[in-house]
């Protein structure tokens, strides 16, 4: 597993999404981690020092695994670019219109009668 | 594990699960483009909560959950989530203003 910097991670995640459009899935895992071994953690704990936790983010397409660690300072910036990537690639999800076309016709009928009294 | 059908229930229970055991709880998002499916999973290796969707509008809810977990994990489980959920409150404010104008 490769621990990447935030921007290379996002780039690699983008290409993972692009590679898996025809078949396959992409998994993204978030976990709270101190990135230290148990021994190191125990040492810190006995020394009475606080353990610094970060958010570990891992992504895999079943063939390759990448990871990055997001700290409290950069999580907001990372979060924003991560959301942008997700939005750009999750295009196979059904849009509202498809389901709502049938539903909205019914709703319009119902709301049509209920809305008019409100306006007046 | 059976999929949870109510988003609010999934959200509440996920945050509870994480706060109960922050060190071993993880949040996994699985996206399958060819089937257009999105599965969210939160587990602490004892309990497993899952939520499945194929609706694009649900992706926005997922974004909120992402934000919540990024905040919880990067800053610590004690963090007040009102900052993250506070955005929803500011969204709701214009509605209140609208009501005021009508009056």
TrEMBL record, chain A:
<protein>
    <submittedName>
        <fullName>Uncharacterized protein</fullName>
    </submittedName>
</protein>
TrEMBL record, chain B:
<protein>
    <submittedName>
        <fullName>Uncharacterized protein</fullName>
    </submittedName>
</protein>
């Amino acid at each position: 597993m490769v621990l990447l910097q935030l921007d290379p991670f996002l780039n690699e995640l983008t290409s993972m999404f692009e590679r898996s459009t025809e078949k396959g899935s992409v998994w993204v895992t978030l976990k709270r981690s101190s990135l230290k071994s148990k021994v190191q953690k125990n040492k810190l704990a006995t020394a009475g020092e606080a353990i610094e936790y970060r958010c570990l983010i891992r992504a895999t397409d079943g063939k390759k695994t990448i990871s990055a660690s997001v700290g409290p300072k950069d999580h907001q910036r990372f979060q924003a670019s991560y959301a942008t990537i997700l939005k750009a690639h999750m295009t196979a999800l059904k849009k509202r219109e498809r389901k709502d076309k049938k539903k909205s016709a019914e709703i319009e009928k119902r709301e049509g009668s209920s809305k008019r009294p409100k306006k007046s | 594990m059976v999929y949870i059908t109510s988003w609010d229930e999934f959200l509440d229970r996920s945050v509870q699960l994480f706060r109960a055991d922050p060190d071993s709880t993880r949040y996994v998002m699985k996206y399958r483009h060819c089937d257009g499916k999105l599965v969210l999973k939160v587990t602490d290796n004892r309990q497993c909560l899952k939520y499945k969707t194929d609706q694009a509008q649900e992706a926005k809810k997922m974004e909120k959950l992402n934000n919540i977990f990024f905040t919880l994990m990067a800053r610590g489980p004690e963090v007040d989530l009102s900052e993250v959920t506070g955005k929803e409150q500011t969204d709701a404010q214009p509605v209140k203003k609208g009501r005021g104008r009508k009056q």
